[in-house]
Amino acid sequence: MHTVFCDVAVIGAGPAGLAAAIAAKQEGAANVLLIERDTAPGGILQQCIHPGFGLQLFREELTGPEYAGRFVKEAREAGVELLSDTMVLSIGEDHILTCANPEKGLVEIHPGAIVLAMGCRERTRANIRIPGERPAGVYTAGTAQRLINRQNAMVGRRVVILGSGDIGMIMARRMTLEGAKVEAVVELLPYLAGLTRNRVQCLDDFDIPLLLSHTVTAIEGKRRVEAVRIAQVDQQRRPIPETERTIPCDTLLLSVGLIPENELTRAAGIEMDSITNGPSVDQRMETSRPGIFACGNVVHVNDLVDNVTAESRTAGACAARYALGTLPRGQALGVAHGSGVRYVCPQRLDAAAGGKAALYFRVAAPGGKTVLTARCGETILARRTVPRVSPGEMCRLDIDTAHLTAPVTVEAQEVEA
Amino acid sequence: MSKSITCTRCPMGCALTVEEAGGILAVTGNGCPQGEEYGRSEYICPVRTLTTTVLVTGGAEPLLPVRTDRPIPKAMLFDCMELVRSMSVAAPVSAGQVLLENIAGTGANLIACADR
Ligand SMILES: Cc1cc2nc3c(=O)[nH]c(=O)nc-3n(C[C@H](O)[C@H](O)[C@H](O)COP(=O)(O)OP(=O)(O)OC[C@H]3O[C@@H](n4cnc5c(N)ncnc54)[C@H](O)[C@@H]3O)c2cc1C
Ligand code: SF4
Asked: What is the phi/psi pair of residue A3, to 5°?
């Protein structure tokens, strides 16, 4: 078997893995190996050809390939070694990775520290169980995006999209520009799942109807989709039969959420957060297994790539310090999601790390003017008032972790509807 | 008269109100100065950056992602798509390279977003 030694091994060359690998190099790790199963680096950004990336980091609006391109170049210049066409199969004892590569066969990698940056995959029709026929023409939105934007294959002409997540809205615009007619975007919840700006630029701009509190009740068609039936839902999210109607179409796109890609993580016995479906981490992005760090969509589904880059730099730098033996370790303090908050990442803090920590979290329900608070017992660590909140848009509070001795709680309280 | 516009300059998505009477009187609801400018421009002539793909020959992948180097009037999006669809470029191409100048008379250039 082919054996490779390195200081830091990063799994996945999306924006998370690229930023982590660069940061590990900058922190002084001599050999950094970036392992990617695809033929080229860039991850999901290669197919996200729309603008809206890097506003915070570069103060300009880039497309996905441009954003990824900058980091690919930086990684190359920093001396990160890219191992593409290589799939990591397992994480064993002593951080040993087993990988498969078409030319080298099985490869065993012995790193000093690991960064998990495998991203996420889409929920499929099987995950949400739509009744009806099983014809061709049902795609997840991300698969359609890859087919249209990378493989030059148009997926349909008359389209209904289930789910108002960002990928679904972005594909509504993309298919419209390519000459398809998008009949409707159908959302089960009473509010938008994705970013408001995407509703404006992708749906409103092209007069595409957004049907909130609606769902697809059946798919019709033997070989190819011929129509979908949709209906309004009640407060328990059950379809109301009288409201059912049929929309003729040849394609149904599903944009019904993403699931962090954590088979490797689970198999490695790393502690998981049941809400985020990702590993629980501390502010250094270290998982429950010392020396194994994680960042990006594998930890929690992010809506902004700038946040991914920021936390991935932390993960990469700390992995390098672990490999070099200079990462301090102190008492672990929990971070709890209090009232109004669905989850917080990181899930714990290491008291020895010191310095500032960014707490990323999502609120449980949409609201108007809201006070966001991070507290340690009665002591308020950070507090901010925002004009409105939505579960589709991540919130952030920065706290000082020096002198922390007790667990931290994050709360969101609406003060004005 | 007033018009509601959602600012899309950043993910905050502030709800702007543009007050008008023979000219723009005021923009309110903006979380930062950029919103005022956005409200004005969106009221007068909405513009968008067009992103799409063109066929590329001789490269490792069949498509090249492209965009306009500045926003173009929203009303011109489909005319520009028509033009881009009839194009193809030959590799090598590098990110930032101008592929078509002054696309459909908009004053914007079509540029490559990746190397091929
Ligand atoms: C359609 C869509 C639109 C978006 N729009 C925006 C936007 O407008 N603005 C914005 O800021 N953000 C946007 N985002 C969010 C942002 O792009 C993501 O948060 C970011 O790409 C996540 O990066 P990542 O590196 O964690 O994951 P990915 O980009 O998914 O990268 C993960 C990589 O890991 C590899 N991998 C997985 N498992 C293995 C394994 N076992 N072995 C080897 N390699 C492996 C995969 O092949 C992949 O290349 C969008 C996301 C999507 C999906
Ligand atoms: S007004 Fe400023 S803060 Fe609000 S969305 Fe526009 S750019 Fe963002």
From this structure: -120, 135
Q: Are residues A92 and A199 in the same domain?
A: no
Answer whether A177 sits within 8 Å of B49, measured CB to CB.
no
The pTM score is 0.91
Q: Are A254 and A125 in contact (CB under 8 A)?
A: yes
Domains and CATH numbers, chain B: 2-44 (no CATH), 51-112 (3.10.530.10)
Are the beta carbons of A195 and B13 separated by less than 8 Å?
A: yes
Indicate which ligand has the atom closest to the C-alpha of A311. Answer: 1
Residue-wise burial string across B74-103, b where 16 or more C-beta atoms lie within 10 A, e elsewhere: bebbeebbeebeeeebeeebebebebbeeb
A87 and A161 both lie in a single domain: no
pLDDT over threshold 70, residue A128: no
Residue A197 in contact with partner chain B when CB distance is under 8 A: yes
Q: What is the pLDDT of residues A377-398, one digit of tens each?
A: 889 999 999 988 988 889 999 9
* Strands across the sheet containing B15-20: B2-6, B15-20, B24-28
pLDDT digits (tens, 9 = 90+) for A50-109: 998 998 888 888 999 999 999 999 999 999 999 999 999 999 999 999 999 999 999 999
Between B13, B53, B81, which is nearest A49 by CB? B53
Distance of residue B51 Cα from the nearest chain A Cα, in angstroms: 6
Tell which A residues from 220 to 259 touch B, by Cβ distance under 8 Å.
Answer: none
CATH number of the domain to which A233 belongs: 3.50.50.60
pLDDT of residue A205: 94
Among A239, A256, A273, the domain-final residue is A256
| Contact at CB, A69 and B113, closer than 8 angstroms | yes
How many pairs of residues across A and B have Cβ atoms under 8 Å apart? 75
ipTM of the complex: 0.91
Quickly count: other Cβ atoms within 10 Å of residue A108's Cβ.
Answer: 14
> Shortest Cα distance from B52 to chain A (angstroms)?
7
Domain boundary among the residues A223, A238, A256 is at A256
Give the domain extent around A33.
1-122+258-327
Give burial (CB, 10 Å; 0-12/13-18/19+) of A288: middle
